[in-house]
Write a structure and sequence with these properties.
Elements (H helix, E strand, L loop, with lengths): L1 E11 L2 E7 L7 H12 L19 E7 L7 E8 L6 E2 L5 H4 L2 H7 L9 E8 L4 E8 L23 E5 L18 E5 L3 E9 L3 E6 L11 H5 L2 H17 L12 E6 L7 E6 L10 H12 L16 E8 L2 E10 L2 E12 L1 E12 L9
Parallel strand pairs: 2-3, 4-6, 11-12, 13-14
Antiparallel strand pairs: 1-2, 1-17, 3-4, 4-5, 6-7, 7-8, 8-16, 9-10, 10-11, 12-13, 14-15, 15-16
Amino acid sequence: MQTAIPCLFMRGGTSRGPFFFEDDLPADVETRDRVLLAAMGSPDRRQIDGLGGAHPLTSKVGIVRRSRTDGVDLDFLFAQVMVEQAVVDTTPNCGNMLAAVVPFALETGLVEAQGETTTLRVLTLNTDMQSDITVQTPGGRISYDGDARIDGVPGTSAPVRISFLDTAGSVCSGLLPTGRVLDEIEVDGVRALRVTCIDNGMPLVMMRAADLGRTGYEGVAEMNADDELKTKLEALRLKAGVLMGLGDVAKKTYPKMCLIAPPRDGGSVATRCFIPHVCHDAIGVLAAVTVGTACVLEGSVTAGIARLPAGNRKAVSVEHPTGEFTVELEVDPANPQNVTRAALLRTARLLMRGEAMVPASVWKGKSA
């Protein structure tokens, strides 16, 4: 016997996974997490017995409900399902999966279209972050056809515009959780490595690739095969986690680790991000926002590397292994170190609608 759970399988940005109504899942968190692990096929490196794609970017889940907060339309809970561990992490945000929330709500009739475009306010429950999301709804229906293009996704689609309202200190105590824009952390028991520990939507530890003896332009496969580098990064991550007030992060998916280098394709800065142990083919939405923020902070690890346009509204082009990601940041004229707004463009698409099947031994369903 199996339990059928209605879901839509959706791509959001450069990630994908099943989206569920909160009411269709167990109310008990422990049981819910067992259901999500079973649905995705974790723990198993191939996730052969579930919907997961054997990679952190394709082992994600969205859970949606009507909002219970005044002035907000939808509540969204993001779940990162670990591939090889029986762990479901609902602590961090995911800006890519966020791009599919409003399309999911429109597809399922949870909300109605407003006109040629629809803008809804979404609360990400993971970190209490609000954002305004605008999608194309010609004729009162969600449209996926358009000319918007994002690196990491083939072809073009209708744009999904996301304007973040409050991202500083999403998981940590503040934008700069150590209280400093630049820290030195000892690695290898010998020398100190300069890092910027920052959280403007995603906790990141940023460092110069050259300080680790790398160019910062290595390909993803080369990075993932670099055991020496990954060992150093994990040792650094464990120490940084404590400094950032996150405690023991050995079994957590954050902070992410980000190597930076001077741009070489006309952008603002080049990046290689680990999430946290696998090199990202691109860069996460909120990681890009956080990298961009570090670029405008005087004295950060990006000083002398990042190339930024003038003015209070800056388009920061973050280069990554498969292209670039542009984030629009607005800074306070009275305090150029204070980022007051972050906006960006993503795309999304409904891939399949149906039911996720989980063994009845995991959960017998709502009616049981």
